[in-house]
Structure formats: C-alpha cells, structure tokens
Amino acid sequence: MCPKTQPRRRGLHLAVWSLVTVLAVAAGLVGVVLWQNSYDMDEQRVTIRHGGHTLNGVLAIPEDGRKQHGLVVYVHGDGPVDATHDDGYKPMWEANAKAGYASLSWDKPGVADRFAWRRAGVSAWSNAPAELTGGGAASASGTAADRQPR
User: Fold this and answer.
1) Alpha helices (H) along the chain
2) Same domain, 138 and 102
3) Do 81 and 107 fall into the same domain?
4) Total of domains in the chain
5) Beta carbons of 7 and 1 less than 8 angstroms apart
6) 23, pLDDT greater than 50
7) Looking at the structure, do residues 49 and 12 belong to the same domain, yes or no?
8) Distance (Å, rounded) from C-alpha 45 to C-alpha 105?
9) pLDDT at residue 73 above 90?
10) Where are the stretches annotated Disordered (predicted)?
11) Are residues 15 and 49 in the same domain?
12) Percent helix, percent strand, percent coil in the chain, to nearest 5
C-alpha cells in the first residue's frame, strides 16, 4: 500500500465510525423518548363558542376509566400557536394525564388554517377582536399596504 493513501484511509475510517456513532446515539435518544411517552390519553377535537366567537381546540383526557377529572388549561403566549403546539404539548398532556388531569388547549384564531392569511392577503390577527389578541397583536400586523410609508 502506498504511504500517501494510509492517512487518507485512516481519516475516512475515522469519519465513517464517527458518523455511525452519532447515528447510533441519535437512534438511542429517539428510542428513549418514544419509550417514555406512550401518550395514554384520549385526544378529542372540541369547539368552544362564546359571545359569537368560536375557538377550536384539543381536549386530552386520561384513559383511567374515571368520568371526572381536574382540568389544566393551556394559555398560549405570543405568536401563532395551534392547539398542540406542533405536538410539543403532548408530553406535558401525558404527564397531566398520568397525574389524573385533563388538558385543554385551543388554536389561536386564524392558526388552524396556517395559510389562510396568505390567501386573504392579510394576517389573521389583524381582524381578530382586541380582547382575543390582547390589543397589541392586531396593531403589529396588517396588509402590506398598511405597512407602506406614507
């Protein structure tokens, strides 16, 4: 074997084994997450109506056979968030379910159909009532024409 090709082979060998190690560790971590989260709860899509407004959401109920549970309501912070926060809430819902609590979370207005505001040409928040947006969110968005210098 040529002396110049040996360092190249060692480098390639090291790179391959490093990649295999990283992939094995990542697969192990994914396995641990999946093993720890069985999501033993019943998720139901719900509609909340009040004062002419409608919110769509998800109610996660423990599958423990009881008919009544305490309720944890998720109040979203800033930004467009759907009821599951792109499935990020599910581990917390599962922890609540294991403790015997149901969880309720809703889609922010206009978020369930994420691209509706693009088709309409305006942000869904620009048309939301101030009591739903906290007053400030509606003024931060709007049509492109609203943001043009005058």
Assistant:
1) 5-36, 90-98, 116-120, 130-133, 137-140
2) yes
3) yes
4) 2
5) no
6) yes
7) no
8) 10
9) yes
10) 128-150
11) no
12) 40, 20, 40
Computed over every residue of the chain, the mean pLDDT equals 75
Q: What is the largest CA-CA distance in the chain?
A: 82
- Least confidently predicted of 2-16, 48-62, 117-131: 117-131
pLDDT of residue 99: 93
Same domain as 72, residue 107: yes
Considering the domain architecture, whether residues 1 and 68 belong to the same structural domain is answered as no
Cα–Cα distance measured from residue 16 to residue 23, given in angstroms and rounded to the nearest whole number: 11
Same domain, 63 and 136: yes
The helix/strand/coil state of 51 is coil
Note down the domain range covering 128. Answer: 41-147
Of 55, 50, 61, the closest CA to residue 103 belongs to 61
pLDDT for 24-56, tens place per residue? 999 988 877 766 666 779 999 999 898 888 889
Maximum mean pLDDT: which of 2-6, 32-36, 40-44, 124-128: 40-44
CB 46 within 8 A of CB 107: no
Assessment of whether the complete model's pTM goes beyond 0.85: no
Residue 14: HSE in the Cβ half-sphere, 13 Å Cα cutoff:
6
**Statement to judge: residues 9 and 54 lie in one domain:** no
Give the residue among 105, 24, 114 at the shortest CA–CA distance from 61.
105
Contact of 105 with 89, CB cutoff 8 Å: yes
